[in-house]
Amino acid sequence: MKILVVHPRMGVKGGGERVAIHSITATLKAGHEVSLVSEEFDQRSFEDFFGCNGLFDGIERLSYPAFSPTIKGGFLLYQRLRYHQRWVRRVLSAGNRFDIVLSTQDIGYVPTVDSPVVQYCYFPDYFAHLESHPSLPWWGLYYWPASRFYRERVRRVDRLLSVSEFTRGFVRKKWGRDSTTLYPPCPIEIYQGVSRSRENLVVTVGRIVPEKRLHLLVDMANQLPDYRFAIIGSVEEQKAGYYERLRTLAPSNVSFVLSPLRKVKDMLGAAKVYVHCALNEHFGITIVEAMAAGCVPVVHDSGGPREIVAEGVGYRWRDSSEAVEQVSRLMEDRQLWGGLSSAASARARQYGPERFESGLVKALGRYES
């Protein structure tokens, strides 16, 4: 089959891009022809960041110029949606025909095509300001047109795949559609054989953006000055102000590591604890990575992480004071940490990329006839 992967913003370098990587890998392994439509991005930097050298050699690239807002500081969502819809439509108007369209990013980027569309869904209608300021009515008004547009796009989707049971429930509630849960691919294989010799180090990994609530980790570090903390991740140009504020607030026991994800293996292998602060995270690939490396997870008790961090493999917290207590307990009790670390490593094996790839190929297989 000819499969079109729609992922306009490859430069984000988050969990969604890992889904795109393994979607391409899985469909190529299954013998399909693959095309990728996206804005232009630094291919070498991307492959270095994710450790996927040669990924794009066997596929067709349908690229267009990278998005740049024409109105500075306002209506960014609408500018981006309009830009990508226009360019994707232009790229596909050249006579390209596909058996399946696989959308691995925002449903707002789904093109109008005759082919069946499969959407990998992280969260329906995820609008950051509504999540962080639900009581402010103007954000509801601002996002109302986008919400209607998303629902219109949903009607063009043949099948929905959800990143977690948590997301599946919201898809049913907001869009009135059932979906199939397909947990995302987690690169657990690179953490096999990591050292069991650990430091009193707490880590978190991910994009350094407000919705990850990394300021809570900085607050924890202030309360636990005897332990080291590390924030490992990437900084988006539009969110650089948040990164600078974190650096200003951070005490001396916090370090920032802007590093390709494939190069954090040593730090995860040296850390005892992984803390995840995001509220209602859709899944949490980096949590699974840390568990595979032997870190004990201490995660916010909401969203997809509740499915990952079952009883006996780590801790969940509602208030950051609970997290401070849990981190301290793990640091001081070697036997407790050792038992949970082994259990976390075993649990992480349930989320390897092979399961995602086989599940995706099975989901797409229904269209082969």
Low-confidence stretches: none
**Strand line-up across the major sheet:** 3-2-1-4-5-6-7
Distance between the termini: 10 Å
Q: Assign the CATH topology of the largest domain.
A: Rossmann fold
Count the domains.
Answer: 2
Describe this structure in words.
It is built from 14 helices and 13 strands. It is of the alpha/beta class. The strands form two sheets. A seven-stranded parallel beta sheet has the order 3-2-1-4-5-6-7, with helices on both faces.
In short, what is this structure?
Helix content is 41%, strand content 16%. It contains 14 helices and 13 strands.
Task: Write out key terms for the chains shown.
single chain, 369 residues, alpha/beta, Rossmann fold, 2 domains, seven-stranded parallel sheet, 14 helices, 41% helix, 16% strand
How would you summarize the topology of this molecule?
Blueprint lengths: L1 E5 L8 H15 L3 E7 L3 H8 L9 E5 L11 H17 L7 E4 L13 E5 L6 H5 L4 H18 L4 E4 L2 H11 L4 E2 L19 E5 L8 H10 L4 E5 L7 H10 L4 E4 L7 H6 L2 E4 L8 H8 L3 E5 L4 H4 L6 E3 L2 H13 L1 H15 L4 H13 L4
Helix pairs in contact: 1-14, 7-12, 10-13
